[in-house]
Amino acid sequence: MEGKSNLNENRMNQNENRIQSNDSKINSIGNEIALDDNRTNSNGRRINLMDLLPEELKELLEGMGQQKYRATQVFQWINKGVTDIDQMTNLSKALREELKSVAYLGKLKTVRKLVSKIDGTVKYLFQLPDGNVIECVLMEYRHGLSVCISSQVGCKMGCRFCASAGAGFVRNLTPGEMLDQVISAGTDAGRRIGNIVIMGIGEPLDNYDNVLKFLRLVNHPQGLNIGYRHITVSTCGLVPAILRLAKENIPITLSVSLHAPNDSIRERLMPISRKYSIDKILEACKIYTVEIKRRVTFEYAVISGVNDSMDNAWELAGKLKGMLCHVNLIPVNHIEDGEFTRSDRQTMERFKAVLEGAGIETTIRRELGQDISAACGQLRRSVITYTDPRRWEDAVRSEE
Ligand code: SF4
C-alpha cells in the first residue's frame, strides 16, 4: 500500500509537469494546417480531414483551386459517416484523387462491440489510426441517445478508484478522433445522437484545445449540430482550465468529480487534490456559474467507509449550500484489484436526504450496462495491460 502510494505520487509529479507543458503548448490542429506549397501541413504530413472545421476545409480546398462550397460538401460527407474519400460522390474523381494526395480520413475501427442484455447499452472498443484503443458508450435515455466519449488514450490523473488510471497515459485525442466516436456510434445505431458526455477515458480539460475544437465541430450547423446545452464536459478539478472555460461563452454543462467533502479524504482518492483544494475548485465553479449562467454538476462516487458517513454528507452540504449546483451520487465501480467497495443503497439514500434537506438537488445515478463493464476504462483495461498499442491485439485474441 505504501509502495503503491509512492508510485502514485511519482506518477502525479510527472503528470503535473506534463500538465504544465500542455498548458503552454498550442496543440490545436487548426494551427497546424497552414499549407505549404505541397498542400500538406507544416510537418509535411497528410492532413486528417476529420480534424478540420468547415473554414479550414475551405482554406484547404481553395488552395487546390476549388470553390468554397466544396468545403461544405466534404464536411457534410464526414458527418454522414463516410469511411473513404472515394465515397464523397459529388466530388469529381480528379478532385478526390487530389484530395487523397494531401489528406486522409482518419476513421476509427470498431474492434469490439458489447451490448447489454439488461438495458441495451452499447460499449465500443475503437482502434485509432495509430493502433491505440479507446472506449465509447452509447446509452438510451428517455430523452434520446446519449454517447459517452473518451478524450485521451489513458489518463495522467491517477484517481485511485478508476480503471483508466492503471494503464497510464499515452496521448491526447485529436478533435476528429472525438468527433468520430460520436459519428461512428450514431451510424451504428442508425439514429441521431442527442447528447454527449465527455466522461470516458481521459481528463478532458487536460486536452483543452482539442476538446474545445471538438465542441465546435460537433455543434456546427452543417455537421451533427448538437447543441452545447446537450454536451457535458467532466473534469477532476483543474482550476485554471475551469476558469478558462468560464470565459469561452460556450453553454455546456460542467461536471466536476468531487468525490469528497474535504481535502484529506479527497487526497486519498485523487492525487490532483494536492494541487487544487476543494475550496479553490468551488471558487472556480462559482465563477463558472456566474459567467455561463448554468449550474455545475458535482459527481460524488460513494465509497463504503471512506466518504459515505452522515458527517461527510453534512460537511458536503455545508460546502455546497447556496451554490447553483446539482449533486450526482454514483455507486463506485468495482475494478479488479481496486481497494474500494460501494456503499449500500440505504446509505446512499440517507446521504441524498441530507443534501436535499440543505436545498441541494441530488440524484443517484442509474447504472447502465452493468453486464458489459460500461464504466470508464473497464473494457479497455480488460484487454490492455500495456501501453504499447501493438500488444493489445494479442490480448484481445487470447480472450476470444
Ligand atoms: S476518473 Fe477521470 S480523471 Fe480520474 S483517472 Fe479516471 S479518467 Fe482520469
Helix percent reads: 25-40%
Shape: elongated
Pick out the low-confidence regions.
Answer: 1-39, 384-400
Quote the average pLDDT.
Answer: 85
Number of strands: 14
Give the helix tally. Answer: 13
Give the radius of gyration: 22 Å
Spatial gap, N to C terminus? 34 Å
Q: Which H/E pattern describes the elements?
A: HEHHHEEEEEEEHEHEHEHHEHEHEHH
Largest sheet: 10 strands, mixed
- β-strand percent reads 15-25%
Heteromolecules bound: iron/sulfur cluster
| Order of the strands making up the biggest sheet | 3-4-5-6-9-10-11-12-13-14
The secondary structure category is alpha/beta
Give a brief description.
The chain has helices at residues 2-24, 54-62, 69-80, 93-102, 175-189, 208-219, 239-246, 263-269, 278-292, 310-320, 345-357, 378-383, 389-399, and strands at 47-48, 103-104, 109-115, 122-127, 133-141, 144-149, 152-154, 169-172, 193-198, 231-235, 253-257, 296-302, 325-331, 361-364.
Record keyword descriptors for this entry.
alpha/beta, ten-stranded mixed β-sheet, two-stranded parallel ribbon, 14 strands, disordered N terminus, disordered C terminus, binds iron/sulfur cluster
Description:
With 400 residues, this protein is an alpha/beta fold. The chain has 13 helices and 14 strands. The protein has helices at residues 2-24, 54-62, 69-80, 93-102, 175-189, 208-219, 239-246, 263-269, 278-292, 310-320, 345-357, 378-383, 389-399, and strands spanning 47-48, 103-104, 109-115, 122-127, 133-141, 144-149, 152-154, 169-172, 193-198, 231-235, 253-257, 296-302, 325-331, 361-364. A hairpin with a 2-residue loop joins strand 5 (133-141) and strand 6. The protein is elongated, with a radius of gyration of 22 Å. The two termini are 34 Å apart. Bound molecules: iron/sulfur cluster (SF4). Residues 155, 157-159, 162, 164-165, 201-203, 236, 376 line the site of iron/sulfur cluster.
